[in-house]
Each structure stands twice: as structure tokens, then as C-alpha cells.
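Task: encode each sequence below as C-alpha cells.

Item 1
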Amino acid sequence: MIIFKSAAFLPQHNTDIAYGFYGRQGGVSTGIYSALNCGPGSGDDLGCVRENRRRIAQHMGARIDDPVTLWQYHSADCLYVDSAVPEGDARPKGDALVTDQPGLMIGVLTADCGPVLLHGRKASGAPVIGAAHAGWGGALKGVLENTVTQMLQTGALAESIKACVGPCIGSASYEVSAGFEAPFLARDDEAERFFREAPRPGHLLFDLPGYIAFRLAGAGVGTVILSDVDTYAEAERCFSYRRATHRGETSYGRQVSGILIRG
């Protein structure tokens, strides 16, 4: 079920934290949502979505049978959570979560955007964890910096924080129109290196995972690991909004990435 693991992000001797970047395999959904679709707003049968989410929570060892995710809307908002959240329309809005509570799996839903998982330590050694949904909009607005800030406010030591960027659309697949780069360059001239000419005239290729890593480093995160898994190119393993759009499909599934303090 898990696409990616990294000893650099979480060494095997770190047994008090579990994490996973889950793909599309191992669930009960069918058709365009096959099979591990975890998006309540995707249009899939909600019974299938709930079962898929339950399977992941169980696999992670969570104390509740549903990962804690938010109503994502490409914002910079990060919330501290210490318990389960309501379902459906009552789900809190935001694009990142932080907790220091054991047994609570926090996660983000993606289908090309960058799922970012983070962990750090308090002075006591107790863990603090975070999960951020970083599409181009959220990354540009500051969702990653806000997640790091919330982790610090929750007690994490700055030098202890590590981040891992999971499967997301790769630069070879992410064609954008010329002019898309303008707000990135207006914020930081260095962002120019994340854009290169595309084969199609008047278009560029955007390195989203590279840009996410750049923003994390700017926020003071000393260790940032990239999965190098391109969701657009990995049709068997990953859901992709852009691929579904290019195929003329009416909707698309969402994969979940989550992190948990054991206990």
C-alpha cells in the first residue's frame, strides 16, 4: 500500500512515529476511483471512501478509524488538532495540520499537489508532527512556513524538524503557460530556477517538488527528502487530477499521506 519510505526522514530506530504516502492500490473503490480513493468530496461512493480511510488508519495503528484531514482549499492555513474532526461539510477548512497527541493520524489528500509530512522533537524528546497540502497556490501563499511555525509553537525545536515531500506531479509533466511564473519571481528571484522552457512554444515546465523543498529550506528545515515519484506518470500507483483531465474523465480519486505518533 505504501509508495515511499525514507530512512533519512525517519530512521528505523525511531519507533514512536509512523508515516506513509499511500497510493491508489489496496482499496475497495471501482472505476475511475479504483481502488484506494480517500477523498470524501470526489464523487465516489462514500461507503467505499470510508472503508478505504478505515483501512489506512488501521494500517497506521491510529486510535480512531479515520485519518484526520481537512476541507482543503489551497490556502496557507495550518491548524493544530488534538482530536478527531467532523465529517462532510462540517470538516474544518485548511491545508495543513500539526499535533503532538499520540494515536492521532493526521493527513492530507492529493492528486498531483505535494503532500509534505514533517516531524520534530520538543526539548523533552516528545514528538511533534505535521502534514501539509502544498499545491502551487498553497506553497506560494506560505502553507509550508505556517506549518513549521505551528510546530515551533507546539514546542518542536527548530533544529529537529525534518520534512519529506511525497508523490506529486513532476517537472516533466507539469506544463504551465508563460506568465504563470510571475508571482513566484515577484516574491523571490531565486524561484527562476524552478521553471524551464517546455517543448510547446509559450509554455514552461514547473518543478513543484523542487519549489516546495526551496520554501521548506527557507523556513529553516535542514533536512528535506523528495520522493521523486511523478503522480501524472504513475497511472497504476497514483491518482492524478491532470491525467484525469487530459483523459476527459469526469472526476478523479485522491490519495492520502499521513503521519502518526504511536501510543
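Item 2
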Amino acid sequence: MEHKSAFISIVGRPNTGKSTLINALVGEKVAITSHHPNTTRNAIRGILSEKDFQLIFVDTPGLHKAKTPLGTALNRVVDETISDVDIVIQCIPAVEKVGDGDLYIAKQLANTSAIRRICVLTMIDMISKTELPKQLMALSELGKKAGFEWDEIVPLSAKTDNQVQTLIDLLVKYSPEGPAFYPVEMRSDQELSHAIADLIREAAIVE
């Protein structure tokens, strides 16, 4: 049986549900979450392994117009991450209108022609079913404005686990043949000390 593997970058504006999504995809907490922007300051790898595939997720800081040296450094992490992956997921929350920030990110993805591009509409549990088609149309138009068409557009809720498996199935579909890069029991490549420091920072932010 062929084995597939892919490095997958998850990008988006600050607070679009990236870390929550990666935790849902991996099946456990590997990235801290907070309502405060730029909680994620490193490209964290979460790993989902099955007998016939391995997906390595890279959770990036929120891409935004940098106003500080920290913001510039965070944007650099994102740029470096999306330049060397197989698939990029752009997260856009269903509770907000598609805006200039989303278009800015989509245009960044347009320059990476060798990758698959998937747009994920997050937080669909927070909108009505009548609003969903409008948001999906807006995402389709976003890709066209950026100069490409999405390989897939997936509405989901990481909080309620709605459509998460659908996204995993699509990611496996678009993954190239390749070996497992990490031991199957690993869920993240973070060092233990780094993971503990992040959890402490998350707790401090919540407080």
C-alpha cells in the first residue's frame, strides 16, 4: 500500500481559529489558543499519523501589517513557512466579513504556485445556515481576486468537530507519496521545555 506524507501550513489573520484547528486535526492540544492576537510566535508542528499517511501541520503566527519589530519577525516566520510546504490552508472565520487582510494573505499564496491551496471557513457553529452560502461565495471570489482558484473550500467547526474529518480526507487526497518523517507516536516536534513554556504563557494570557 502506498504511503502519503505532506507538510501543511495553516495561515490566516490573527484570531481566525488556526491553533484551534490544528489541535482538532491532531486530536490533542499541541498549540496554545487565546482571544489575544499573535499568541502563536513559532511555527509549531503538529503531527497526525495513520498507517497509510502522515500529515505534518505547521501553525503560524497571524499574518498582519507589521507595526513593531515583533510583528515583522512574526510575518517572517509565516513567509518562511509557506515557501516550503505541500499544502497551505488559509483560515477565515465565518463570523467576520472577508476583508483586505484576507486578500493580502491570499495574494501571498498566489506566488506559491507549486502548492495546493485550501480555504477553510472556521467557526461555522457561530452562524446561521442561511449565512453560510454567502460566506462560501465570498471565499470563492477572494481566490479569484488573488489570481487563482482554491483547490477546495471547506466550511467547518473545530470546536464541535464538524467537517474536521472531511478536511483530513481532502488533505490525504492532495498529499504526495512519501515516507513518515516522524515516529508514529509523536504528536508534535516541540521540545518539552518549549511546550511547557507555551502552556504557562497561555494560562497567563487567559488570566
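Check on item 2: Strands lie at 4-11, 44-50, 53-59, 87-93, 116-122, 152-155. The two ends are 49 Å apart (CA to CA).
End of task.
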